[in-house]
Specification:
The protein has one domain (5-150). Helices cover 30% and strands 21% of the residues. The protein has 5 helices and 4 strands; from the N terminus they run E-H-E-E-H-H-E-H-H. Strands 1-4-2-3 form a 4-stranded antiparallel sheet. The termini are far apart.
Length: 158
């Protein structure tokens, strides 16, 4: 069974994803705590259109084409923003579902984005315990650098 899944979009001002970023994505694959379900490179052109470029070998054993899942999610995001459909939630989930970002609306022109579909394998036992307890998420959030500085989780120059 698949663990909790996150769509992460990382923007950069370069036309291609830098080698050291691609290297770190490869390291994630081998770590075991996070699985890479799919990877896709996106570029929003100056005219507002979004081009997609598969990143080779994101999940070597995957039974799908590279970028296929992310393209489906982005299409769903576009439809959801058009239809204003709410995200489903309920008991037995570990994390709250967030709206999927709409690349057409959120990406600045000229930016390249590395889209990663990550499976949080470390969270599978916790997710199963939450499901078995009929518990539910009340909230979750990624802490940004500024907040981490404010509460002194990271040094001021981080």
């Amino acid at each position: 069974m698949t663990g909790p899944v996150q769509l992460m979009l990382i923007g950069m001002d370069t036309p291609e994803v830098p080698a050291h970023v691609r290297e770190q994505v490869g390291r994630l694959r081998g770590a075991g705590t996070v699985g890479i379900l799919d990877v896709l490179s996106l570029c929003k052109n100056r005219n507002g259109t979004v081009d997609t470029h598969p990143v080779p070998d994101p999940a070597p054993d995957a039974p799908h084409q590279p970028g296929e899942f992310i393209v489906q999610l982005l299409r769903k995001a576009r439809a959801a923003s058009t239809l204003s459909a709410p995200a489903p939630a309920g008991r037995g989930y570990l994390m709250c579902g967030d709206p999927i970002p709409d690349a057409q609306d959120t990406l600045p022109p000229g930016v390249t984005v590395l889209a990663l579909l990550l499976e949080h394998r470390w969270a599978i036992p916790l997710r199963d315990a939450v499901r078995d307890a009929d518990a539910f998420p009340v909230g979750d959030a990624w802490l940004g650098r500024e907040v981490m500085r404010e509460i002194q989780l990271v040094p001021p120059d981080f």
